[in-house]
Specification:
heterotetramer; A alpha+beta (581); B alpha/beta (240); C alpha+beta (83); A: 581 residues; alpha+beta; six-stranded mixed beta sheet; 20 helices; 33% helix; globular; B: alpha/beta; Rossmann fold; nine-stranded mixed beta sheet; two-stranded antiparallel ribbon; binds adenosine-5'-diphosphate
């Protein structure tokens, strides 16, 4: 085949794309020839840890994902749970760790944008955002800058789109000094019978691109997110993506307007691997092929080649497959909202992803090879030796209990997070019944007369997970559960974001395996299924890994706000009761 | 009451204020797209909060040039009440319907919290139900709420009693500590010379429903609904 | 005629500049002791096509007056250059 | 020696400029049909006192690197002038 992007495919180039020699062999075998540069790029992102879950998949399969309340478990853009009366909540959590370390404002902002797209892609209006943040030691020279940049970025994006940011957590630990964690969760509400999925069923339908134009943003971010940091990655870093929350807001409104009708067969946001992952996933789920003509892709920069367009991480873009005859109506809606709209291809019967640019075929790959055919590893793991038990009797008692309490309350781990959440608009939409600061946020569902609400919380205590991954994983799920019940909600389901170091190290793989086992055990025991999530591995620098951090995001239902509880102590003369052991 | 809420690209408190108006008047307002050139018959026009055009360039600058704003300015000149909340206030200053400008908060940070306001004048449609000097609690949520006007303009506003709300503490003291954004003279809201155009940074619609923890904003909407019922005439359906 | 307008929008003197003030404070705490004052403004580059320079000048002037500067608090100046 | 540094901080080419994009759209709908592209940056004036010009130059360079520009996505340039 002839390709306009020509570059010799050397072993170095393959290695730079993060493919191991055996993976490269497999790629050549699938193609029956050497890949074009565009194909190499496509394999590289689709087989990256980020997209393929090649190290974690075997463990994720052990998590409980079902229950009478579950409408859609893992495998779609977000999980969907029934909350009665024909209503559903749609939610997911995702990491944006590496980009936020490189450029805290934009990294965090685009993380929020990405997770919101996962939710409104499914037909839900985003109604709340949460974020789980981990930074290095408070006194580390970078911490202040990273913390303020990340918080401003989350606020900058969420506030502008008009979605309240209602909860989250912030931890500090020296092991995050060079690998901060920014995990963003978005919750939306939809009608249970109007959920949109990503399966592009049927051949001959228009594949439509909407949103912002494509530029050379963050090319190779997806593979970068799976590669361990070293000292000069700060120098080699590719262009970071800049978020445009204003466009995101327009995209939310335009998509939800189009979703009122029945124009859409399938829809998928362009996430980390942009046009590549969105088209492959839609084709794969629908059992079809897709042919794209890149000349028709709206472009912001001149002279982009096929490789760049397929790997671009430009933000605020979506791909849709429309029903025959729906193009005009859809175009009118997107134009009204001032967004780009272009038919860039069609679904085919070939089962292949075919990319054309300037009259040349740049890629021709069987879709299955990229999805089900991606590598899956049963990586060896070992259990780290448990740290010695510290007996309470061996710890000297503080001079003054009140002094100790004051020191704890004033310390970075427990002090008020008001400084953070006052930078987030946590009240827009006029549904925030419990604001940040309590055990869980409570968001009313419906109009002002509605008495139904959902409770939202996110939790994990990395230090527990480091001490004993299995108990720590279980504890995180249980704590989320408790926080939801503490406001009077019935816990429904969880999402999660698994942040770990390099899985090729058996002791890290051991943390993953055991945390997931613990999470699964607790989720099963509590009938608190996992409906969505995300994995972020290789969070380590120069061999120093982060503590195991399986962040859990939970959603519960409050059928009647009358039954809601709050954290504040009420009148003077009430009795305090301690429950549990 | 026939209220019209103008929806700009990036408005995000449009639905919130619509709910407050409906709760107070029993009737949903019309939502009017910024690209329209004609306004429906309206006894009240609301410019809602949000981030019109992303707050890019300057908050409110681009929205002030939306096609519908020509009609809004004309109606305002005819005496139709116009309420601008947060981004709506910024748009009102950018169109020149209200004097001064809203600059970046002195802290440079976005700030979202409840604040106390002293009602400085009850001589407007909007503040009629409050007592002069009453302290009310409304939330703020903005990045650019730092009110600035030149000394002559400030003197004029003060002299004509056009400062309607001022940031204060819970006891009504106007202090620097109670000023969330660096506004001159703790100004939170001002009105036009005829008292019919009101711009304020805080959000009365966010504390107008008991479930949300307060109702200090509700009387404003209620008073508008009572005073403005049927004045637009052209459309007399269901009045509550 | 393809032109580029370089436009500076700055706060009028007498208008307090919260951003400039914050930057001055930050520079001071970074150890730059000689900093006496910082003012922050906007710089815009507008690429435009106009029949001739006079028309371009008139257009840019209007852009500034109508949109790019808020003349209550800001002043502007610009330069035109053939692209 | 009292000096003024004029500093321009602009987005690197290729980096999305959402503000510039929105301004271009607004200018177009205001009827300025010839506008092809708008990029928005920052312009700063820093008044500083330095022993000599070389030192001032070095200081301003460091201010830009450390605070004024976000060098991941922005570039800067500056001019010095005796005040
Ligand atoms: N830790 C996890 N637990 C459960 N499900 C997960 C987990 N990680 C990923 N998933 C699921 O795998 C699917 C693919 O995830 P991902 O690639 O992150 O989605 P996207 O393409 O939207 O970014 C999603 O449906 C997600 O919910």
């Amino acid at each position: 085949m002839t390709a306009t992007t020509s570059q010799e495919i050397t072993p170095d180039l393959i290695a730079e794309h993060g493919l191991k020699p055996d993976e490269a062999e497999r790629m050549v075998e699938i193609l029956g020839r050497q890949p074009t540069p565009t194909e190499l790029g496509i394999f590289s992102v689709m087989w990256s840890e980020h997209c393929s879950y090649k190290s974690s998949r075997v463990w994720l399969k052990t998590l409980p994902t079902e229950g009478p309340q579950v409408i859609q478990g893992p495998g779609e853009n977000a999980g969907v749970v029934d909350i009665g009366d024909g209503d559903a909540v749609v939610f997911k959590m995702e990491s944006h760790n590496h980009p936020s370390f490189i450029e805290p404002y934009q990294g965090a902002a685009t993380g929020v944008g990405g997770i919101m797209r996962d939710v409104f892609t499914m037909g839900a209006r985003p109604v709340a955002n949460l974020n789980a943040l981990r930074f290095g030691a408070p006194e580390h020279p970078k911490t202040r800058h990273l913390l303020s940049g990340v918080v401003e970025g989350i606020g900058g994006y969420g506030n502008c789109t008009g979605v309240p940011t209602v909860g989250g957590e912030v931890n500090f630990d020296a092991r995050y000094n060079n690998n901060i964690l920014v995990n963003a969760m978005c919750v939306g509400t939809a009608r249970a019978d109007k959920i949109f999925y990503s399966a592009a069923r049927g051949a001959g339908h228009s594949v439509v691109y909407v949103g912002s134009k494509t530029g050379r943003d963050g090319i190779h971010g997806a593979t970068m997110a799976s590669a361990e940091f070293d000292d000069d990655s700060a120098e080699k870093r590719p262009t970071v993506q800049v978020g445009d929350p204003f466009t995101e807001k327009l995209l939310i409104e335009a998509c939800l307007e189009l979703m009122e009708g029945d124009a859409i067969i399938a829809i998928q946001d362009m996430g980390a691997a942009g046009l590549t992952s969105s088209s492959v996933e839609m084709a794969d789920k629908g059992g079809v092929g897709i042919r794209l003509d890149l000349d028709r892709v709206p472009q912001r920069e001149s002279g982009m080649n096929a490789y760049e367009m397929m790997l671009s991480e430009s933000q605020e873009r979506m791909l849709m497959v429309l029903r025959p005859g729906a193009d005009d109506k859809a175009e009118a809606i997107f134009r009204k909202w001032g967004l780009d709209f272009a038919v860039i291809g069609e679904t085919t019967e070939s089962g292949r992803i075919e990319i054309w640019h300037k009259g040349a075929q740049e890629a021709d790959i069987p879709v299955r090879a990229l999805s089900a055919g991606a590598p899956e590893y049963q990586r060896p793991w070992t259990a780290r030796e448990a740290p010695a038990v510290v007996r309470a009797a061996d710890v000297p008692a503080p001079d003054s209990l009140l002094g100790a309490l004051k020191a704890l309350m004033a310390g970075p781990h427990l002090c008020s997070r008001r400084w953070v959440w006052e930078q987030y608009d946590h009240m827009v939409m006029t549904n925030t019944v419990q604001r940040p600061g309590g055990d869980a946020a409570v968001i009313r569902v419906g109009d002002w007369s509605s008495r139904k609400a959902v409770a939202l919380a996110c939790d994990v205590t990395p230090r527990y997970c480091a001490a004993d991954p299995e108990t720590g994983g279980a504890q995180a799920v249980a704590e989320t559960w408790r926080n939801l019940t503490a406001v009077g909600a019935q816990p429904l389901a969880i999402t999660n974001c698994l942040n770990f170091g390099n899985p090729e190290r058996p002791e890290i793989m051991g943390e993953i395996a055991r945390c997931v086992t613990g999470m699964g055990r607790a989720a099963k025991a509590l009938s608190f299924p996992v409906v969505s999530g995300n994995v972020s591995l290789y969070n380590e620098t120069n061999g120093v890994a982060i503590p195991p951090t399986p962040a859990i995001g939970g959603v519960g239902l409050l059928p009647d706000l009358e039954r809601m509880a709050t954290i504040a102590l009420k009148p003077d003369d009430e009795v305090l009761i301690l429950l549990g052991e | 009451m026939n209220a019209s809420v103008i929806v700009f690209p990036g408005s995000n408190c449009d639905r919130d204020v619509a709910r407050a108006l409906e709760a107070a008047s029993g009737r949903p307002p019309r939502m009017v797209w910024h690209g329209e050139t004609e306004l429906p018959p309206s006894d009240l026009i609301v410019l809602p909060g949000g981030f019109s055009y992303g707050d890019y360039l300057r908050a409110g600058a681009m929205a002030a040039h939306s096609p519908i704003m020509r009609a809004v300015v004309e109606r305002a000149r005819d005496g139709v009440p116009v309420l601008g909340i947060c981004n709506g206030f910024q748009i009102l200053t950018e169109t020149g319907l209200l004097p001064g400008a809203l600059m970046r908060n002195a802290s440079l940070k976005f700030i979202c919290k409840d604040v106390y306001l002293r009602v400085e004048s009850t001589e407007t449609l909007y503040t009629r139900p409050y007592r002069a000097g009453q302290v009310v609690r409304f939330p703020v949520a903005h990045h650019d709420g730092n009110y600035f006007a030149d000394p002559a303009t400030l003197r004029m506003l003060e002299g004509e009693g056009r400062v309607i709300f001022r940031y204060c503490d819970a006891d009504g003291n106007v202090t620097a500590a109670a000023n969330p954004n660096g506004s001159q003279d703790n100004i939170a809201g001002i009105c036009s010379a005829d008292g019919r155009v009101l711009g304020l940074m805080p959000h009365p619609e966010r504390l107008a429903d008991p479930v949300l923890g307060g109702t200090d904003g509700f009387p404003m909407f209620r008073a508008l609904a009572e005073t403005l019922t049927g004045r637009a005439g052209a459309d007399h359906a269901i009045h509550v | 005629m393809a032109m580029t307008a370089r436009i500076w929008v700055t706060l009028k003197s007498g208008v307090l500049d919260p951003q400039g003030k914050a930057i001055a404070g930050a520079l001071d705490s970074l150890g730059f002791s000689g900093v006496e004052d910082v003012r922050q403004g906007k710089y815009l580059e507008v690429k435009l096509d106009a029949p001739d320079e006079a028309q371009a000048r008139q257009d840019v002037e209007r852009m500034c007056e109508e949109l790019l500067a808020n003349t209550v608090i800001e002043t502007y100046r610009f330069e035109l250059e053939q692209a």
